[in-house]
Structures are given as structure tokens and as C-alpha cells.
Design brief:
The chain is α+β, with helices and mostly antiparallel strands. It contains 12 helices and 7 strands. The protein folds into 3 domains: about 160 residues, no CATH class; about 60 residues, no CATH class; about 25 residues, no CATH class. The longest helix has 28 residues.
């Protein structure tokens, strides 16, 4: 049976051609980047000078470290902001984060973080799965908003990218940058501008958060240290949180979850329901028919003269005589 209807489908040759063009473009970019890296190799001294100048700026030093409490202690380390800036200073490094696939049914995304030193051909790739979920107290809740999913993937990707970049940077380069950032936080920037005294910065942070209803004790709970033990890095972290709150990038509920989960805020638990009154079911009295009457202890049988054992009509002697 023949048909004049011609159903056409997209040509596989056309799709293959587009793929080949994209592959060729990517290969050309890689070759060009490698050629430039070989033609203009990095200068270690120049990279060190760039790093020292950058880490001497208070704006970078404030974002150079993260610190948050966990059940087993404090977690600290350099941030992705410092990693990206060090990659720029070191030079000839390509880094990126890509979302390879998103599965809305399984609530997860497959992602890839890459850092590549094209001069030494040192490459670090980290593939990982990001669940579309958020930690809420001691459980998790699924994310449904597109913005929430995007921010969740971006945060997870930034952490993997940080590890990838530090995987291709020399260790001495990273450690020296951290030391300079700490010194900048303590003593001021490289332009000679002295740092505000630490106690003044503490008092200003406490006063600022108090205007939003956050107490000193809640700040201490967030940092995991009493106010007297706060360091310049801790105050800088509070400054980052404050700027994020003003920009609407985060909320008080997200930054201070313990504030909204105390028993005093939640209120007393509802009283348990009172048990229903037990209703006695009516039971009929047992019939007295066929039951032997109670024999008084002082009763004397007229037939056998026995005391308190039976009535006269049940006397064994009387029954024997009737038989």
C-alpha cells in the first residue's frame, strides 16, 4: 500500500554537522589557549606580586575565609572568592562550573567543576550530584522554586570549584595569600590605611544586628565563640552576613535558624487530649433460679439434726426415704 503523504524528520546529517562545528570550535579554543600559554608563560615573581597586592586589599580579605560551627567543632578555610582571585593572579588557568543534566523527577542535578592549568597541563575535574533539597533543622525539604534550585546548584558548584582551583595552585602560593589576608584584617590594607580597632568593629557589629532583633548571644551561637574570643575573621564574616541581608540575598531565618526554633518562640506544646470517660455497660443480674439458697450457720435440720449444711427439703435422709 502506497501513500502520497511524506512525513519528513530532522536530518541526522544536519544534527551531526552542528555537533561537529561545536566540537571544532571547542578544539580551536583549547589549541589557541595552549599556544598563548606557551608563548607567554607566567612569571612566578609577577604572580606573587599580583597576589600580595590583591590580598592586601581589605575588600578581598573580608571575603577570604569562611567559618561556621558544626556539632564536632568549627569548620574554617579559604573561600571560593579567594580561589578565583588567586587563579587570576597565577595566570593561564581556566576554570568553570557546568550543569550537565537536571532531573526534576528525581530532584537532582548532575554538575561538573573544572580547573585547568593550561601551561603545565594540570587538570582537576570534579563531577557531583546536587540534590534539590535544603537542610531544615534536623531534616530536609525539597526545593521547587527555580531560583532556589539555581542558588542551591550555584552554592554547591562554588564549593567544588574552590577545591578544583586549589588543586592546581601551588600550596605555597595559597598559604602565603591566606597569611597576607589575615594580616590585612588585623592591621589594615596595603595602602597604609590602618584597620579599625577590633573591639570597635565588634561593638558596631553587635549594635547593627541588634537593630534587626539579633542579640549578642545569638551572634555568639552563630560564630561558635564568645564575644571575647572573636577574631578579625569572625567580625568580617558578620559583615558579609549583614551585607547579604541588606541586599536580600539571605534572610534572618536562614542565617539564625536557632532563633526561630527555641521553645520560648514556638510556645508550649498543646495539651494532650483527655481520655474519654469510661461508660459501664449494663449487665443483667444472674437469675437466682436453680441456685442453692444460703444456709444459715445456726439452722438445724429436723430430719438429721445437722447444723448449717442443708435445708430440710434437701436432707439426704429425706431423699433416701422418698426413693
Amino acid at each position: 500500500m502506497s501513500s502520497d503523504l511524506d512525513i519528513s524528520t530532522p536530518s541526522s546529517d544536519r544534527t551531526s554537522q552542528s555537533t561537529r562545528v561545536e566540537q571544532a570550535r571547542a578544539m580551536a579554543e583549547v589549541r589557541a589557549a595552549m599556544a598563548i600559554a606557551m608563548e607567554y608563560p607566567r612569571s612566578t615573581n609577577l604572580a606573587r606580586d599580583r597576589m600580595r597586592d590583591s590580598c592586601g586589599q581589605i575588600s578581598l580579605a573580608r571575603k577570604a575565609f569562611f567559618r561556621f560551627p558544626r556539632s564536632d567543632g568549627m569548620v574554617t578555610g579559604p573561600t571560593v572568592h579567594l580561589a578565583r582571585d588567586l587563579a587570576r593572579c597565577w595566570g593561564n588557568i581556566v576554570h568553570s562550573v557546568k550543569e550537565l543534566y537536571r532531573n526534576d523527577l528525581r530532584l537532582e542535578s548532575e554538575m561538573l567543576a573544572v580547573a585547568w592549568d593550561i601551561e603545565t597541563n594540570t587538570r582537576v575535574e570534579l563531577g557531583f550530584i546536587v540534590p534539590h533539597k535544603r537542610d531544615v533543622r534536623k531534616t530536609t525539604e525539597p526545593l521547587t522554586s527555580m531560583r532556589d534550585i539555581y542558588e542551591n546548584n550555584a552554592n554547591a558548584g562554588a564549593r567544588r570549584l574552590r577545591e578544583a582551583i586549589y588543586g592546581v595552585l601551588p600550596l605555597w602560593f595559597k598559604e602565603e595569600a591566606e597569611d597576607i589576608c589575615r594580616a590585612t584584617l588585623e592591621h589594615g590594607d596595603s595602602q597604609g590605611k590602618p584597620a579599625v580597632p577590633l573591639q570597635v568593629r565588634k561593638d558596631k557589629a553587635i549594635e547593627s544586628f541588634a537593630s534587626k532583633g539579633i542579640t549578642r548571644a545569638e551572634l555568639e551561637d552563630k560564630l561558635g565563640e564568645k564575644e571575647g574570643h572573636w577574631r578579625a575573621v569572625d567580625v568580617a564574616q558578620l559583615a558579609v552576613v549583614w551585607k547579604s541581608l541588606d541586599a536580600g540575598e539571605t534572610t534572618l531565618e536562614m542565617e539564625f535558624p536557632n532563633k526561630f526554633t527555641r521553645s520560648a518562640d514556638i510556645g508550649p506544646a498543646p495539651a494532650a487530649p483527655r481520655p474519654a470517660a469510661k461508660v459501664e455497660q449494663w449487665q443483667p443480674e444472674p437469675e437466682s433460679v436453680g441456685m442453692a439458697p444460703v444456709v444459715p450457720s445456726d439452722y438445724v435440720c429436723d430430719v438429721c439434726e445437722a447444723e448449717g449444711k442443708h435445708f430440710q427439703d434437701e436432707c439426704p435422709k429425706l431423699n433416701d426415704n422418698n426413693e
